[in-house]
Write a structure and sequence with these properties.
Order of helices and strands: EHEEHEEHEHEEEE
CATH architecture: Alpha-Beta Complex
Number of strands: 10
Number of helices: 4
CATH superfamily: Cyclic phosphodiesterase
Distance between the termini: 20 Å
Strand order of the largest sheet: 3-1-8-9-10
Number of domains: 1
CATH class: Alpha Beta
Amino acid sequence: MMEQIRAFIAIELPDVVKDSLSSLRDRLRSAEHRYVKWVAPEGVHLTLKFLGNIAQDRVPPIVGAIAQAAQGVTPFQLQIVGLGAFPNMGRPQVIWVAIKGEVEKLITLQGGVDQALVALGFSPESRPFTPHLTLGRLRERASSAERKEIGELMMATQFEDGPVMEVTEISLIRSTLTPQGAIYNRIASIELKGGLPTSDL
């Protein structure tokens, strides 16, 4: 049977952005809320589409579809700007950092990737794309009071606009789940110049 890999399509973050997220996460963590599961900064990506488990032989057509979606999209700039939560700050479930900059290009790119993959049998996203970087998730057992407390902490946390990042490529990434957390490996990168994909296989 063909090996299955867990994969997603994302924009990888430069170290300067990861460092900014790391210092922000450390400030929030200093309150020692045991009911928040924080994401390791090196594991934060700007996810465009989660594919789930796919057979290894599906990688080439997926890379082709991403390259098709990337054609005509030139490099663009994004910036991390502030804290937010899903569904809201009053009862947070997911803690995230917002993104501004050339967001319209990002949304166009994500929509193109989503559409290109429909032809390969992947379901289109049912919810509107909200560009964000996930910092942490509240555990199921967190009480309403605990959720309110972390929401108040987030609202009280000052966060200067983070560094600007230049987006020049998107990546197909393999996620291997281990007891210590997920391990990420880039499978292929597609440049935002209408160029041919480069593979790291």
